Amino acid sequence: MDLCDLQMDGDKVIGGSTFRLFRSGQDALVLDVLTLAVRQEPNICGRGYGTMMVNVLKALVLQEARDMVRRRPTRGMCL
């Protein structure tokens, strides 16, 4: 997942986020978004850059959840 492709305007960064993703218990992931900012300029505001950043963060959580399931050891599997 690439946050930079849609977040660059020439050489200027137009948005960013500070977040942490951590496991709560065995089966829960928590995405804690501390800061999400988008530059306040006429050609930037209202273009959906904040929404795009949130959607990428959600996709990151889903990918990590899938990876957690794959890494989970199988216990007493009956076929």
Question: Can you tell me about this structure?
Answer:
The chain has 79 residues and is of the alpha+beta class. It is built from 1 helix and 4 strands, in the order ββββα. It has one helix at residues 49-71, and strands spanning 8-9, 12-13, 15-24, 28-38. The strands form 2 sheets. Strands 1-2 form a two-stranded antiparallel sheet. The chain has a two-stranded antiparallel sheet with strand order 3-4. A hairpin with a 2-residue loop joins strand 1 (8-9) and strand 2. The radius of gyration is 17 Å and the shape is elongated. 3% of the residues are buried. The mean pLDDT is 79.
Strand content: 25-35%
Order of H and E elements: EEEEH
- Poorly predicted ranges: none
CA-to-CA gap between the ends? 36 Å
Mean pLDDT score: 79
Strand order of the largest sheet: 1-2
**SSE-based structural type:** alpha+beta
Write the layout of secondary structure elements.
Layout: E1 8-9, E2 12-13, E3 15-24, E4 28-38, H1 49-71
Antiparallel strand pairs: 1-2, 3-4
Main attributes of the structure:
alpha+beta, two-stranded antiparallel ribbon
State the gist of this model:
Helices cover 29% and strands 32% of the residues.
